[in-house]
Amino acid sequence: MLQYVQRRATRVRDRSTQRRAAQGDGGKDDGMLKIGSHISSSKGYAAMGRQARKLGANTFAFFTRNPRGGSVKALDEADVAEFLDKAAENGVEGPIVAHAPYTMNACAADPGLREFAQNMMRDDLARLEHTPGNYYNFHPGSHVQQGVQTGVALITAQLNSVLLPGQRTMVLLETMAGKGSEVGRTFEELRSILDGVALDEKMGVCLDTCHVSDAGYDVSASLDGVLQEFDRVIGLSRLKALHLNDSKNPVGAHKDRHERLGLGCLGLGCFSAIVRDKRTRDLPMILETLGVEVKDSSDPDLLRIERVDESTGARFTFLFNRTKEPVSMLVEGRPVVMSLADCAGATVTINPNGVLVVKQ
Fold first, then answer.
1. pTM exceeds 0.85
2. What is the pLDDT of residue 4?
3. Which of helix, strand or coil describes residue 357?
4. Amino acid 310: pLDDT
């Protein structure tokens, strides 16, 4: 089976190279997008691998434990071994992105909650050593009226207490929307945390498109400007993963309310730019707000997602093509093929008659 998958992957690369050669770029193979969604971890690692294959995803995210609590099942090493053994067969190339629970607040005002967060992170990182080379993403926390400076100091203290020189998991700070007293709403706050971590080579950043927009970075109007600012303050070498979420709110709202891609204030043009930009296109991209019915994909290159627009009743089928070719859609069963590169800055909607409308 592994040989079959390898041969299939080679044919896919060859087809992509031929297409690019026909387009006049010399046939250079720049690889496939690393794209996936959040997958339930309730049935274990092997089940997540099978679900990734069903989706056509080559990476994915998962919660390390109950996201609203802290409980976790004992690690089943046989289950982990099966996941690793069948990763290639399931098309999982990684890195995969583990997500810490929301209850982990490294800068809580209550010392007991900080101890809870520290023990949880230490245990998560120990468990993740069974799947080395992947990422552990967490929300930095909320300072709860202690002030940003105190929050940053407490977060760095936790990281310095749990990170180990020999660990093989990279820890990612997630960009935050700035709701309440969240730490990490600016690139400068994230940089302050990174500057305080002794083993900073074990650290990176996960950029959430909804969060940065809500925080005041206009990623939709100027992806280039936001990435330049990120590079100036933090450094693009720290950017390791992306959460692709549209936003229900305009830039600077500080609300953190995710919307499905293309239906919010960011628009499809934002995500078109992300998948084409050389600074972001090779990063793991996690879709967190599917809100859809997922179907099997007959083509290993495609992540197929189906949903019905709640306001119009129109049915969409989105085919995310990881070889960076034009995205295909089926609208009310009728095929529509367009290149998102041609829709940069556009708003794509479905009118009451089920007709695709593209407004520049």
1. no
2. 27
3. strand
4. 52
DSSP assignment, residue 350? E
CA distance 120 to 70: 7
Residue type, 307: R
pLDDT, one tens digit per residue, over 310-357 is 555 545 444 444 444 434 444 444 444 343 333 344 444 444 444 444
Spatial contact of 332 and 41, defined as CB atoms under 8 Å apart: no
Q: How far is CA 37 from CA 220, 302, 310, in A?
A: 21, 13, 21
Angle at 52 between CA 49 and CA 55, to 5 degrees: 155
- The proportion of the chain whose per-residue pLDDT surpasses 90, expressed as a percent, equals 59
What gap in Å lies between CA 227 and CA 32, rounded to an integer?
A: 21
Residue 11 CB partners (closer than 8 Å, separation 6+): none
Maximum Cα–Cα distance across the chain: 62
Omega before 132 cis (within 30°)? no
The H or E element containing residue 203 is strand 203-208
CA distance 87 to 59: 10
Q: What 8-state DSSP symbol labels residue 306?
A: E
Q: Output phi, psi for 96, to 5 deg.
A: -90, 160
Place of tokens 């967190």: 288
Of the ranges 16-25, 154-163, 210-219, 266-275, which one carries the lowest mean pLDDT score?
16-25
For helices 77-85 and 45-55, angle between their N-to-C axes, nearest 10 degrees: 30
C-alpha–C-alpha distance, residues 174 and 137, integer Å: 6
Which two tokens mark 253? 């709202």
pLDDT tier, 56 (very low <50, low <70, confident <90, very high otherwise): confident
The neighbour count for residue 10, using CB atoms within 10 Å, is 10
Q: Could you give the CA distance from residue 49 to residue 218 in angstroms, rounded to a whole number?
A: 35
Identify whether the C-beta of residue 204 lies closer than 8 Å to the C-beta of residue 239: yes
Helices (H), 129-267: 148-162, 187-195, 209-215, 223-233
